[in-house]
């Protein structure tokens, strides 16, 4: 009877413990063998009770062995496949954002704070949206400014050379007031080097409303450069773009504090970061906006160059090589 209690209470941590339990009770030299051998020596009036007791003990021991073995068999199978399930987990390695995305997101965030939304358009464009609507009619010499990859000619289908094409689409489909920025990939047939690639990324901005002036443009750029670079000294140099009049190039004063500053700014301290201007009335009219009633400004900048600048990346090609050792370095950036 004590043994029955022992059998009922028995638990095992390993298969081996179950096995020695089995040998102890049910083995060839086990306790039950002994008890059954003892049976013939038991007094007749006790035989019944003794017999019942050892039979109960036997079936309880057998049952115990079976249930314990089963519980271990399951686990062993799982452990074989997954290893020790009680071990602490290994963390899943975290990815990182691409420096282009980091820079793009920062630009979007800065402009969204002053009411600009984000618009996107196709990378494969027609002639109208990439050139003609932007005041670059056929045979206009300024088309040479942008070496174009043509997919098809007549009618011309091409890889967009700038995201100004998105602004045309936006003006065609939305009424002023318009405040939008268009980030995206653009393509130009240029020799690939450390400084330039045949594809890169731009953010262009457009603001059209009643009474928009050059002063608004300048103040917006001032705000942007301060937020983006922490540098508030800018200058606008007169320039030319077919779609803006007047047009300007924006330089940020980067300073001449370090050797890199000297290299980046060719010793002047000034760094060119974007083109801008007042939207040419012809462009507004091409997009169905009354140029007597409305005026606007536009600007455009290259994301890649800014990413190189902010992260001190020496070669633009590193941005598209997908080298994990390079990409992993942006883990700590948001
Ligand atoms: N679209 C011009 C470019 O790709 C940039 C630009 C945009 C200039 C808007 C002026 C106004 O170089």
TrEMBL record:
Residues 109-320 form the Aminoacyl-transfer RNA synthetases class-II family profile domain. It catalyses: tRNA(Phe) + L-phenylalanine + ATP = L-phenylalanyl-tRNA(Phe) + AMP + diphosphate + H(+). It is found in: Cytoplasm. It is an enzyme of class 6 (ligase). GO terms for biological process: phenylalanyl-tRNA aminoacylation. GO terms for cellular component: cytoplasm. InterPro entries: aa-tRNA-synth_II (IPR006195), Phe-tRNA-synth_IIc_asu (IPR004529), Phe-tRNA_ligase_II_N (IPR004188), Phe_tRNA_ligase_alpha1_bac (IPR022911), Phenylalanyl-tRNA_Synthase (IPR002319). Binds 2 magnesium ions per tetramer. Its main location: cytoplasm. Pfam families: Phe_tRNA-synt_N, tRNA-synt_2d. Its EC number is 6.1.1.20. Mg(2+) binds at residue 245. Keywords: Aminoacyl-tRNA synthetase, ATP-binding, Cytoplasm, Ligase, Magnesium, Metal-binding, Nucleotide-binding, Protein biosynthesis. Its cofactor is Mg(2+). GO terms for molecular function: ATP binding; magnesium ion binding; phenylalanine-tRNA ligase activity; tRNA binding. Tetramer of two alpha and two beta subunits. Belongs to the class-II aminoacyl-tRNA synthetase family. Phe-tRNA synthetase alpha subunit type 1 subfamily. NCBIfam families: pheS. This is Phenylalanine--tRNA ligase alpha subunit. The lineage of its organism: Bacteria, Pseudomonadati, Bacteroidota, Flavobacteriia, Flavobacteriales.
